[in-house]
Design a protein that fits this description.
With 502 residues, the protein is α/β, with parallel strands linked by helices. The chain is built from 18 helices and 22 strands.
Length: 502
């Protein structure tokens, strides 16, 4: 038996106006954890969609278990033993775990009668193999993100998967759940399953992967053993240059009554309790905490997206009534949401239409029609200023990389004259090069006097970008850390329920 399970040879994939992959060739060994790294837009997702039957290559070959294969669709790839766990899960929320695991492959007693007892037994068996303590009869919508991921994995291994592709699997997981995932990957590897692991978290790659392949701008750069490269080596392969410090230099922000832009008092609802904080002009205020701490709930309550029991908001010392996102926008406050694909963008619309969507009133001519010349100026300026990589303003936004999609979301709100921008997980699913660009954009905005509230689950990001840090735990602010007070140890201490000794 060959030690190579999967090989791509001279793979090329073209879309209208774009070459996504160009002459890519490399091999993956049987039973290894093989990382695929590269910036957003490097071609990773396109390649994985070729391997899982979503796309067919324009030219080149896929060699699987020593034979050339062609996949007509994902079901065909699964039947041959290749499955993918997407970053955005492909589960049906209103079905339970059992129904999701066997969706499209239901077990039957007779031609028209489902064998529900057998499916439940097999589902429990599969979850036991994964060491997942989940009731498979629960609706998927009621499961945590980590447990939804286990349902996805159970679904994959139920069809005797030989190659399992993970696309950014830890993007929505906390520390303990990440540890569980890594233990699971180790067990699958021990059972002979080959893992392809896509992640922008380079520490994860050095922890669990045996080898890696780097793509850049749709081309193969190198394939290496993980033990042979440093984190800095991987970054240089990805971006084609040294990245010494991704975080721009912090500004000296005056933390005083005179410099207050926003004051929030007694913010409360069913998820958060008596939240009070202030935001200075030109400041980045970080909000840290584990998943479920109430960070997103706080900013949603602030902008009126969620109802509140009590709330006082002052902008430049004047009381502001904010009961809806529209009112928040009128007061110059905008939210760049955590899920850009479901909450920040209309994926089927063009880059241009997404950018100008909140500005239609401004673009209206005297005849109440859209002023196309004015629209074009705004769009072209946004693409240029934010360095959005797109073949044209008329490209559908769903075809852009994650980093460029994030820039489009940002462009929407920068054209609305905002004073306060709220970034919820600003670099989730974005590569190191795109992160560097987003950080620079954020810091440049503060130089212009715009204030930023940033929610992030990445501690280095919180510490590297924030002028002050609020730490939340179970719906409350537990600490405010300024300057050198804000260390990784202190943030984690308060984020896990620690209290001051005073």
């Amino acid at each position: 038996m060959s030690e190579t399970i999967l090989e791509v040879k001279n793979i090329r994939k073209e879309f209208p106006g774009v070459v996504a992959l160009n002459n890519v060739s490399f091999k993956i060994k049987r039973g290894e954890v093989h990382a695929l790294v590269g910036e957003n837009g490097a071609g990773k997702s396109t390649l994985m969609k070729l391997l899982s039957g979503v796309y067919t290559p324009t030219s080149g070959e896929i060699i699987y278990e020593g034979k050339k294969v062609e996949f007509n669709d994902p079901k065909d790839a699964q039947a041959k033993g290749i499955s993918i766990i997407h970053q955005e899960f492909s589960l049906i929320p209103h079905l339970n775990g059992i129904e999701n695991i066997f969706l499209g492959r239901e077990l039957k007693k007779w031609s028209t009668v489902l064998d529900k007892r057998l499916m439940k037994s097999k589902a429990i068996n599969l979850l036991d193999q994964l060491n997942a303590k989940i009731d498979p009869t629960q609706l998927v919508s009621r499961l945590s993100v980590a447990n939804q991921q286990f349902i996805e994995i159970a679904k994959a291994i139920s069809i005797e998967t030989k190659v399992l592709i993970f696309d950014e699997p830890t993007a929505s997981l906390t520390g303990k759940d990440i540890d569980k995932l890594f233990e699971l990957i180790a067990r699958l590897k021990a059972q002979g399953v080959t893992i392809i692991y896509i992640s922008h978290h380079l520490d994860e790659i050095s922890q669990i992967c045996d080898s890696l392949t780097c793509l850049r701008d749709g081309e193969w750069i190198d394939t290496k053993k993980v033990s042979e490269v440093t984190k800095q080596d991987i970054i240089k392969m990805m971006v084609g240059r040294e990245v010494i410090n991704a975080f721009p230099e912090k500004l000296k922000v005056q933390n005083s009554e005179e410099n207050r832009l926003l004051n929030v008092k007694k913010l409360s609802n069913n998820h958060i309790k008596n939240i009070s904080f202030h935001l200075n002009k030109g400041e980045i205020l970080g909000i840290a905490g584990v998943v479920g701490a109430g960070r997103t709930e706080t900013v949603r309550a602030l902008i009126g997206a969620d109802p509140t029991k009590e709330k006082e908001v002052y902008i430049n010392d004047k009381r502001a009534s904010i009961n809806s996102p529209t009112q928040a926008l009128e007061h110059g406050i905008s939210l760049i949401p955590e899920s850009r694909k479901t909450q920040g963008l209309v994926l089927g619309m063009t880059v241009a239409k997404n950018i100008t969507l909140p500005n239609l009133k401004v673009l209206q001519s005297k005849m109440r029609l859209i002023d196309r010349k004015k629209e074009l100026v705004i769009v072209n300026n946004s693409i240029k200023d934010l360095r959005i990589k797109t073949p044209s303003a008329n490209q559908q936004v769903k075809f852009l990389s994650g980093g460029n999609q994030q820039k489009v979301v940002l462009a929407k709100w920068l054209n609305t004259d905002c004073k306060v921008l709220i970034f919820d997980e600003p670099t989730r699913g974005i590569d190191i090069g795109a992160k560097e660009e987003i950080y620079k954009i954020m810091r440049d905005l503060t130089k212009k006097g715009i204030s930023i509230i940033m929610i992030s689950s990445e501690l280095p990001e919180i510490l590297g970008m924030s002028d002050r840090v609020l730490v939340m735990y179970k719906g409350e602010i537990k600490a405010e850390l300024v300057g050198e007070e804000a260390t990784q140890e202190k943030v984690m201490y308060y984020a896990t329920g620690g209290v001051d000794n005073e």
